[in-house]
UniProtKB/TrEMBL annotation:
Keywords: DNA-binding, Exonuclease, Hydrolase, Nuclease. One of its GO terms (biological process) is DNA replication, Okazaki fragment processing. The keyword Iron does not apply. PANTHER family: 5'-3' EXONUCLEASE FAMILY PROTEIN (PTHR42646:SF2), FLAP ENDONUCLEASE XNI (PTHR42646). This is 5'-3' exonuclease. It comes from the Bacteria. Residues 3-282 form the 5'-3' exonuclease domain. The keyword DNA-binding applies. GO terms for molecular function: 5'-3' exonuclease activity; 5'-flap endonuclease activity; DNA binding.
Amino acid sequence: MSGRLMLLDGASMWFRAFHGVPDSIVGPDGRPVNALRGFTDMVAQLITRQAPTRLVVCLDFDWRPQFRVDAIPTYKTHRLAPDGAATNTEEVPDLLGPQVAMIHEVLEAAGIATAGAVGFEADDVLGTLATQEKTDDVVVVSGDRDLLQLASDEPNSVRVLYIGRGLAKAELFGPAEVAAKYGVPVENAGDAYADLATLRGDSSDGLPGVAGIGEKTASTLMLRFGTIANLRAAIDDPDSDIARGVRAKLAAATDYLDAATMVVRVARDAEIVASGPDLLPREPADPAKLDELAVRYGAESSVGRLVAAMRNR
């Protein structure tokens, strides 16, 4: 019987924890710990529900990789800090930044692995680890719809637990669910979703999409042609029966389509740097340190739930 590898989109989760738990939740020294406690509780719930044998929290070593900016200069520009253009610094709430370090401390003491890749964002780490896994089933947890492109049945099961509306309303996507919800072919649902997203665009990432092509039209095109490559071949064929207006819109977007594919598609071959083995322990790696951190940050209940989940899975 295979095990289960659970891959967590770290920043996606602690941003959601920060905004989902009041910042009036503070530790003994008065510092906010809402993101720490919310994130820790989320991890505990996920371990309880999914019972993974292995677990990795995936990190943004570069939240806005240069190769994507070179391709689409507007990529994530709206998320730059006010003075961050020169340093490529993401705007992060003042009360969240210090808590990220706390989260890393708790993960290390608990013995939960983290992983990143120089020059890549967490999406690429998730994509690489999910693609490289050939033995265990994989569950990718993220609030980013871009990760739906990873849903697959071959060579093993990769499912995406989408938490964009919170963990209580999480949706589990395999190829069939992606196809049903977004109107793409089930046989290549993950790749087709990435192509649909390329056509549609994504304002949250600064991707304009093809002007005049919304999600409904993009879905119709994907169901008919399967891939952007097939669609573009049809556009270049004067005998194809694509509607004149759609043909004109796609022809005008040639440069965008050339560039956007590498931006939307996650990397599958990033060079991963991991903090340690991904085997999820049943006991904390450093119980004394974890207890000390729990007391210092006023997170005894959350840390206790995490430890209980690790032991009881």
